[in-house]
Design a protein that fits this description.
Elements: H1 2-6, E1 16-18, H2 27-35, E2 40-42, H3 45-54, H4 82-105
Parallel strand pairs: 1-2
Length: 107
């Protein structure tokens, strides 16, 4: 979280609904996830965390918000927000890399 503040990025910590089913999120499932406290929807982390559990490895995720279901900032209007998304992805990569380097230096 400290590294993300160096880039002026907001940090949200909380449960994420992760699924490997493309476009599975319906309005009803989205509402249920929000009611359960989910702060995001993701498709990749389920595999990463499953493998981490199987092989007893520590796992983590850093995510970039690409859309907000049910608002004008949806996947379907992504070209309108492309520069924000690309900057967020670039910052996420830098934050992740710098965090890993810091962890290595402090171990």
């Amino acid at each position: 979280m400290r590294k993300s503040k160096e880039y002026g990025r907001n940090v949200f910590v909380g449960p994420v609904w992760t699924t490997d089913a493309l476009f599975r999120e319906t309005s009803e499932l989205y509402r249920e996830a929000v009611e359960k406290g989910c702060v995001g929807i993701d498709m990749e982390c389920s595999a990463v965390f499953t493998l981490g559990k199987i092989y007893n490895m520590k796992t983590a995720a850093i995510m970039v918000v690409s859309d907000k279901p049910g608002t004008e900032k949806s996947f379907w209007n992504i070209e309108k927000f492309a520069s924000e998304l690309l900057q967020g992805l670039d910052d996420a990569i830098k934050i992740a890399f710098n965090t890993i380097v810091s962890l290595k230096e402090n171990s």
